[in-house]
Give the backbone structure.
Amino acid sequence: MQAEEQRGGGAPRYSIIPRTLVFLTRDNDVLLLQGAPTKRLWAGKYNGLGGHIEPGETPYQAAVRETREEAGLEAAQLELRALIHITLPEPPGIMLFVFVGTVPTGEPLPSEEGTAVWVSREAYTALPLVEDLPDLLPRVLSPGPCIFGEYHFTETGLVTTFDPE
C-alpha cells in the first residue's frame, strides 16, 4: 500500500495527535512531575512524564525519550497500560499511550518541564493533580490487561470512561 492510500480519499478525516504518558514506580512510590510555573498547561499540577511522539518514533521510543528528557532517568522496562482517546471540542483529538515502568536506581534531574518527585501511592491523592489522574492512576498502577479510555469535555468539565470496567 502506498502512503497516499493510507490517507483515504474524499473529505478530510478526523485526525489525532499522538502523545505518551509515563508513570515510573519504585517500591511503593510513583514518580510525578510537578509542572513548571511557566507551563501553558497544568502549571504547578502533578502529572506523569511524557509528551508528543515525534515523526519516525514508536510510542515506546517516545516514552523512553520523554522519560530521559524530563527526569534524566532510564526505566528498566515500560509496559503499555492504557490507550486513551481524547476528543477535544475542536479537532484534532489526542491518542494517549500510557506506560508504566520501574526505575531501580537513580534520582530525577530537574528539567524545563518541571520537577519530578517520588510520591508514595498513599499520598499522591492529596496533591494538586491533573484532572484525570485520580481516575487514571489507580487503574494503570494496578496489575491487569491494557485498559482503553475515552475522555471528552462537557459544560461541567472532563468526562472519563474506561473499558473494561
Observations:
- The radius of gyration is 16 Å.
- The longest strand covers residues 16-26.
